[in-house]
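This protein record is not my work; I was only asked to verify it. The record follows directly below this note.
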Amino acid sequence: MALNNNDLTARDVMRDAPVIPVIVLHDVAHAVPLARALLAGGIRMLEVTLRTPQALASMEAISKSVPEAVVGAGTIRTPADVAASVRAGARFGVSPGYTSKVGQACRDAGLPLLPGVATGSEIMMAQEDGFTELKFFPALQAGGIPMLKAWQGPFGEVKFCPTGGVSAANAGEFLALSNVACVGGSWIVPNDAIAAGDWGRIEQLAREAAALPRG
């Protein structure tokens, strides 16, 4: 089913595939072939992080040249990040933390957001603003699987995307939890493979990630 800003929701983003790749691009020329490799492997929700000067141009290149992919903006921290990301073609956003200003900017822009949380209080603040699909970050450092299990009781309606320390070795354990809809990770987009233009390797990693079972 085709998705656009008007009908895409945070839950759509989380349920599309078991893994959302956390992408750091240093060269715009890598953006389109990387997106095509991920798409060929079964991953179409692509989080391009705002960690490099090339991030916005990379989002724009993917959104224009690979329309079947759904480009998201990661590391959103301010309303200005939201505006710039939407102009670049982002169709969802991911933040490392949460503020009401960022949440409101995303609502105003029609941009589905996965807000970052690491504590019960942060979950409650995000819920107060209407967010129930959340990024758990940094997942491993903030308590990992035991923390997610502890949250199943008081926050049973919340779905999480654990990110930070998630790898091919432990992704399955996270995905087995009932309150985990997907995970975020960089292992399917390794820097050395991107730099070498080894798109076949990335396609295979994406294919393996897309096949991971969920609880």
Observations:
- Residues 1-5 have pLDDT under 50 and may be disordered.
- Residues 10-210 form a domain with the TIM Barrel fold (CATH 3.20.20.70).
- The longest helix spans residues 199-210.
- Strands lie at 19-23, 45-49, 70-74, 92-94, 113-114, 116-117, 133-136, 159-162, 183-185.
